[in-house]
Amino acid sequence: MSETDRVPVDVAVGVLIERDASGREGRFLLTSRPVGKVYAGYWEFPGGKLEQGETVEEALRRELHEELGITIGAVHDWKIELMDYPHARVRLHFCKVFEWSGEFQMREQQAMAWQQLPVQVVPVLPGTIPVLEWFAAERAFAGATHAG
Ligand SMILES: Nc1nc2c([nH]c(=O)n2[C@@H]2O[C@H](COP(=O)(O)OP(=O)(O)OP(=O)(O)O)[C@@H](O)[C@H]2O)c(=O)[nH]1
What we know:
- One of its GO terms (biological process) is DNA replication.
- One of its GO terms (molecular function) is 8-oxo-7,8-dihydrodeoxyguanosine triphosphate pyrophosphatase activity.
- The chain has 148 residues and is an alpha+beta fold.
- It has one domain: Nucleoside Triphosphate Pyrophosphohydrolase (Alpha-Beta Complex), CATH 3.90.79.10.
- Helices cover 16% and strands 34% of the residues.
- 8-OXO-guanosine-5'-triphosphate binds next to strand 1, strand 4 and strand 7.
């Protein structure tokens, strides 16, 4: 593998979160990776790679519309994480999203699940686990963040 293969690819990731009337954050959305992709069947936050010239926000709006059929409202930058996989090096831009419109459609035959800590769906993508830890810290949740 050449050095250029290890240049990180930027990925926009949407953390869709339900909030109650007082603004308290509740369930969050996970989707399973479609058949045919690397890590097929693993659960992750929806998103995808930035196309040339796109900002994180633009990529996130496009990906969530393409994959889930929804139109998202404000995008709140949250955390950035670098992940080294055998197949790729990715820079994940996690953004919180609290508002969206439209019916969810699984346009890539993926599955979706609204989750709380501890996450019940398995297996969870390695790059998703740190997010669950950030949630645990924010929510003062103690214990395992996911099953398995
Ligand atoms: N969407 C998403 N990707 C993640 C997460 N965590 C994580 O490590 N990744 C990695 O980031 C990369 C995202 O690429 P992708 O394959 O989902 O994006 P895409 O739809 O643009 O890909 P493609 O069109 O090339 O198939 C993958 O290598 C994936 O393993 C996550 O929580 N959500």
